[in-house]
Amino acid sequence: MNYKVAKELKAERVKRDLKISDVAKQLGTCDESVRRYEKGTKKLSLELVEKLLNIYGIDPAVFFTNVCANMHE
């Protein structure tokens, strides 16, 4: 599931034309951490996912509905 969440988070960032460095700055972390979150190689906490969704302006219920709907891919 972590990979699917990571993949969707990256897609949402790209859709909003945000750079990794922009997101990293808002999170108070480095670019490499954001890259690793988006690849699914660094663990995503629920708190971090909530922060990212807030940055992207996405309702968590909508986001997780989409993740679950795309799990069979």
Task: Please explain how this structure is put together.
The protein is an all-alpha fold. It has one domain: lambda repressor-like DNA-binding domains (434 Repressor (Amino-terminal Domain), Orthogonal Bundle). Helices cover 71% and strands 0% of the residues. It is built from five helices and no strands. It has helices at residues 2-15, 20-27, 31-39, 46-56, 60-69. α2 (20-27) crosses α3 (31-39). The model has no long low-confidence stretch (mean pLDDT 92).
Quote the distance from N terminus to C terminus.
12 Å
The CATH class: Mainly Alpha
Q: Poorly predicted ranges (pLDDT <50, ≥5 residues)? A: none
Give the tally of β-strands. 0
Principal-axes shape call:
globular
CATH fold naming: 434 Repressor (Amino-terminal Domain)
The DSSP helix count reads 5
Give average pLDDT, whole number. Answer: 92
Major sheet summary line? none
Order of helices and strands: HHHHH
**Assigned CATH superfamily:** lambda repressor-like DNA-binding domains
Helix vs. strand class: mainly alpha
Strand residue percentage: under 5%
Q: Give the helix proportion (percent range).
A: over 70%
From the alpha carbons, calculate the radius of gyration and give it in angstroms.
11 Å
Number of domains: 1
CATH architecture: Orthogonal Bundle
